[in-house]
Amino acid sequence: PPSPVREINIPEKGHVLLEWDLSRVENRLLFGMSGDRKLVREAQPGWVRDSYQDVADDLELAGRFDELFGPVTGEEDARVLNRPSVRKLYVRQTGKRTLLAAGYGMQGETMSTAIVLETEGALDLPARECDGWLAELKRLKPGILAYQAWTRGEMLQHGWLENSWRRRYYFRVLRLTDAHYRDGYAWRCQSEAGVLTNQWGFQVARRALRGSEG
User: Fold this and answer.
1) 3-class secondary-structure state, position 65
2) Residue 5 to residue 183: CA distance in whole angstroms
3) Distance (Å, whole) CA 103 – CA 158
4) Is the pLDDT of residue 214 over 50?
5) Are 106 and 21 in contact (CB under 8 A)?
6) Is 129 helix (H, G, I), strand (E, B) or coil?
7) What percent of the chain is modeled with pLDDT above 90?
8) Secondary structure letter of residue 8 according to DSSP
């Protein structure tokens, strides 16, 4: 279910709040930069399948959820997680989180903590389960490892990463650690998405404001 925190944010007079949905932009960027022909195909705008649900299906997450939390019951079940519609949503969201966590070099414990926060405590997955899903996903999508190897190579060669907008992230340390590499994996995709939002977002916001004034 959507977070109730979002419902209490009200824009000031003369302003609007916009929620951007760039259609799986982070994983599409990662796929496109991986050099893997299969992943590059999935990154194309014409790809109509749901990548997050595909991951959930490939990892058989619905069955694992049944084993971890018991089978779904009914929509009126006191436990939200046991309701079919909510369970389906959480299975897909776990597919999404597994894909992003794998791409950004997270471990199972970090992934588990992120899911607890995202679901406001409703979904607490064992870290060992998350580690298993991450390992299996990397086996199924070796392009993820190719993307990470390329990013590490750039960091080692230059001491910085540069996105397609010529913006750089410097690593001014004597020795790069796993934490630095994880930052690099994430920055490469997130910086591209962030600049895209800044480039086009203000134009859309201005049009929205003009429309509300008219």
Assistant:
1) helix
2) 28
3) 21
4) no
5) no
6) helix
7) 62
8) G
